[in-house]
Write a structure and sequence with these properties.
It holds the Pfam family Molybdopterin. With 390 residues, the protein is of the alpha+beta class. It has 13 helices and 13 strands. Helices cover 32% and strands 18% of the residues.
Length: 390
Amino acid sequence: MESSNPANSAADTAMTERAIRQCELSVVVDVAYTETAALADFVLPASSQFEKWEWTFFDFEWPTNYFHLRRPLHDPLPGTLVEAEIYARLFDELGVLPDQQTLDRLTEVARDDRPSLLKHAGPVLQDNPAIAPVLLYRTLGRTLPTGAASAAILWPGCHTAAKKMTVPVQRALGTDLTGPALGEALFDRILASPSGVAFSKHEYDEIWTLVRNERIRLAVPELLDWLTGLDPDRDGVAPDYPLSLVNGQRRSHNANQILRPPAWRKSDPDGALRVRTEDLGAIGAADGDWVAVVTRTGRIVVRAEIDDSLRRGQVALPHGYGVSVPDGHGGRVTHGPRINLITDVTDRDPIAGTPHHKDVPVRLERVTAAECANAERDRDRVRQLITRGR
């Protein structure tokens, strides 16, 4: 598992945790010690985005499109590697890469006659085409500016763009080159542009050249069949779970789980459950109390916050919380609600299969004395971290 945290971000967290524990072997590649990493047999720490060559694609303003190959700002922390090097070393150990003599020969081809690299690498890739990205890293990557070996994978992409969008790429680069020479020029321009580069400039009448088929099919039979079968009476409120939870509300200071330090959040430090006065009062609780949110799959304890702007019967929790962080004393503490403990992987969109997060049937309950004590303890530990700016 690389750069993902299914033990916190996948629906029905408890089920995901059980599945990871049952694996014969689990390996995590990540920049943070996530909840998933804590369950893994091996953790391979990666360098952060500030310590390696990475890229961003944005179509800032169509018809001009930009690509930004970002250079590292700092040296990697000791004991970390860029992902490409991690996988290259794993491939070495697995014995799926060619011998060093072959790699050296292909490196010289990349240095002296780069356009013919794939032709020379053909016999190697014929046996195992899946090694192509690592092969480029181990050959072409060695010829690139210091530390930029990871960018080698962009080279075939540049040739594909130049082939499929020849005229727009020519406009962006201000050149009349064609064929492989245009792809090479685009790759060189990207490497030499630390602030990003326009890689294509289109005219509006060219937009249909980007559509693969002659028609865009708007009618999706599966969707239409599902829509005709909708029944409001059948999908009514479940008696055991009468409230509708927006599980993943956007707020002023929440983002994805990459932003783990609690001190980053300038408001809503607990990731409170927002609830109407009458819905909270129905269980005998008040604003600021700890309450339990219960679903078919789980139960979490959260702090309640009155919000009468919600519609009746609706409650809301934010996304991006529920991550564990070092507590400064050798342990870890969970910051905010782990919302996927109460989502249901089987309650999902029937076509895409995406679990529902914006209309989760729940009920509220009073917390036990032990639950309240644990919640107060963890909140105090988190607030100590915030005070120390961590």
